[in-house]
Amino acid sequence: MTERKIKALIFDMDGVLINTEPMHYRMWKKTFEQHGVEIEYDIYKACIGTTHEFLMDLIRENYGADFRGNPSIKKEAMAIKKQMISEEGFPKIKGVPEMLKAFYDDGYLLAIASSSPVDYIELAMKYLGVKDYFTVINSGEYVAHSKPAPDIYLNTAQKLGVKPEQCVVLEDSTNGCISATSAGMLCVGFLNPDSGTQDLSRACKVITDMSQYTDELVCSLEKKYL
């Protein structure tokens, strides 16, 4: 049997493993309402897949409220998010646990490369019952530059002990696709309607359902691109 070239599968988390983007909008909407600012989804969605700083710039430009350099606003939002998770749990994406188990059983190394804090990632994965499938759980907290820079994916490959070209990434955002491909990895895009309008054109394949992300698909990418 020919040894496969793709050794590791790396996953973004928000919008890929859990459907957190609608929750994030509700969280920020409630946070800004406490400061007299009513944000609209059509404005907010531009920040999906970007940084906290981008959101603060977006709010200033569209609503004239300047929260840049104000750490308390993020603390308020995180408190609201914690309450939402306590009351509702983490919002699931159909087929994620089954997909991860199948890849784990197939012998792939699995990792998460997310901009979220590591304790939050671990909590979410425990909630889904899939934490033990991952060899590496990596956070943007640990790298110098956030997505779309390639730092987190390069760092994750290093932690896994594999080369970038031996990895396939699953991403749902424009910045995530740029980050993964800039790291020299193949990228599969997940078209999540709750993640806003994202440009997944840098992905070599786009899926709309987790049941489509299989060993057969990964092998076909290996055959085509490697």
Element string (H = helix, E = strand): EHHHHHEHEHEHEEH
Q: How many beta strands in the DSSP annotation?
A: 6
**Fourth CATH level, the homologous superfamily of the largest domain:** HAD superfamily/HAD-like
The helicity comes to: 40-55%
Identify the overall geometry: globular
Number of helices: 9
| Number of structural units classed as domains | 2
Overall mean pLDDT: 94
Oligomer: single chain
Q: Tell me the CATH architecture of the largest domain.
A: 3-Layer(aba) Sandwich
Spans of at least 5 consecutive residues whose pLDDT stays below 50 are none
Strand share of the residues? 5-15%
Instruction: Using the coordinates above, name the CATH class of the largest domain.
Output: Alpha Beta
Largest sheet, strands/sense/barrel: 6 strands, parallel
* CATH topology (fold) name of the largest domain: Rossmann fold
Through-space gap between termini: 17 Å
Radius of gyration, whole Å: 18 Å
Structural class: alpha/beta
- Name the strands of the widest sheet in spatial order: 3-2-1-4-5-6
Architecture overview:
The protein is of the alpha/beta class. It folds into two domains: 8-20 and 91-225, 3-Layer(aba) Sandwich (Rossmann fold); 21-88, DNA polymerase, domain 1. 43% of the residues lie in helices and 12% in strands. The chain has helices at residues 21-33, 41-44, 52-63, 71-88, 96-105, 118-128, 151-160, 174-182, 215-225; strands spanning 8-11, 109-114, 136-139, 167-171, 186-190, 205-207. A six-stranded parallel beta sheet has the order 3-2-1-4-5-6, with helices on both faces. Helix 6 (118-128) links the parallel strand 2 (109-114) and strand 3. Helix 1 packs across helix 4. The longest helix is centred in the middle third of the chain and has 18 residues, at 71-88.
